[in-house]
Design brief:
By secondary structure, the protein is mostly helical. Helix content is 97%, strand content 0%.
Length: 226
């Protein structure tokens, strides 16, 4: 009976040692896997953080560029408004001069009629012809002024159109930058989610390793007591 008991104890001890060896092997495997996973995670985390940092720096640069675009667009809007004001002023001046030209034409016609009626009185006819000549000179000068004003008006209209085109281009560029910025924000959020997932996996692996280590210690204590 004693020999049987001793044999049973030896068998049980051998089983415990075998179990301890299996647990030790499991812990070693888990530890290696944990270390490899941790190394991969640290590498991926560093890479992700660098990418997030670069994206944030680029987003900040794009934000500064958008601010400069807003300032540039504001200047263009002011220049466009100034051009429209000049255009309106030139248009009013042109209208006034055209009315003056029409008035001078009417005066010239009246003087011509008066000259025809006064042909019999040579002195009056000469005076009227002189007045008509002066009126024609004023008319010619006014017509030249109107012509120049029309050219200036066309030039200002062209400038206003150019400013409007530039303004439209800046607005389109701003919209494109905002879309790109939104895409960058979405990518940053996606990368942050990946970081969070890796942290969760690392926590789970750490918990599993701690559990295996606790089992190993428990089995070792049990073997020592036996």
């Amino acid at each position: 009976a004693m020999r049987a008991t001793i044999k049973e104890l030896r068998d049980e001890r051998a089983a415990l040692l075998a179990r301890e060896e299996r647990v030790t092997h499991m812990v070693d495997v888990a530890d290696r896997e944990y270390r490899a996973e941790r190394k991969r995670f640290d590498s991926a985390l560093a890479e992700t953080r660098d990418e997030v940092k670069a994206l944030r720096a680029k987003a900040a640069s794009e934000a500064n560029e958008r601010e400069r675009d807003r300032a540039r667009r504001g200047a263009m809007e002011r220049e466009s408004a100034d051009a429209r004001e000049v255009e309106a002023a030139l248009s009013r001046r042109r209208d006034a001069l055209e009315r003056e030209v029409e008035a001078l034409k009417e005066t010239n016609r009246e003087l011509r009629k008066e000259a025809v009626r006064a042909k019999t009185t040579g002195q009056r006819a000469e005076w009227l012809e002189g007045e008509a000549e002066q009126t024609r000179a004023r008319l010619s000068a006014s017509e030249a002024t109107v012509k120049q004003l029309r050219a200036d008006l066309q030039f200002e209209k062209s400038n206003a159109t150019k400013f409007e085109s530039k303004l439209i281009a800046v607005v389109k560029e701003k919209e494109a930058l905002e879309k790109a910025h939104q895409a960058k924000d979405a990518k940053i959020e996606q990368l942050q989610n990946r970081v969070d997932e890796q942290v969760k996996k690392l926590g789970a692996a750490s918990s599993e390793l701690q559990s295996l280590a606790a089992t190993k210690r428990k089995d070792a204590d049990l073997s020592a007591r036996e």
